[in-house]
Amino acid sequence: MCRACEVYLPLLLEDESGIAHGNDWANGFLRGMEFGKEDWALLLDDEDYGGSLVAIFALANENNPDPEMRSYKDPISADLRETLIAGAAAGTTQIYRYFKAQRFLTNDPLGNVPDFLRTMPKIGRNDPCPCGSGKKFKQCCGKTTLH
Asked: From the DSSP assignment, how many helices (H) and strands (E) are in the chain?
């Protein structure tokens, strides 16, 4: 499968009847969004990707004590739940693509650089250690310590 075609599926817990409601996963996802709120705010404001969170918000707030926070006033049917879970999976993939694209922008709000780009020159095993000790890297900071 091509890397651009990858799909990221949420891991859902099933209840005693074998039904995966998706509420716990969605609530956990929203809790995770508390880290880096500024970055998530940028996603929510993005016209192309902001809708990626709709199904996740609907599942997370299904049983919210405040009825105004619920996306549906009636209980979610099995068919609608399946649609929302599929939407959450698709949304997760879209969210991944959004943040992956952000990594390659020069004004990267996440402060990341692509994994394959170095910010410093590569240090070889036999090069002098960058710490300034005068030793070879492999005999200094690059040495494997076993405990």
From this structure: 4, 0
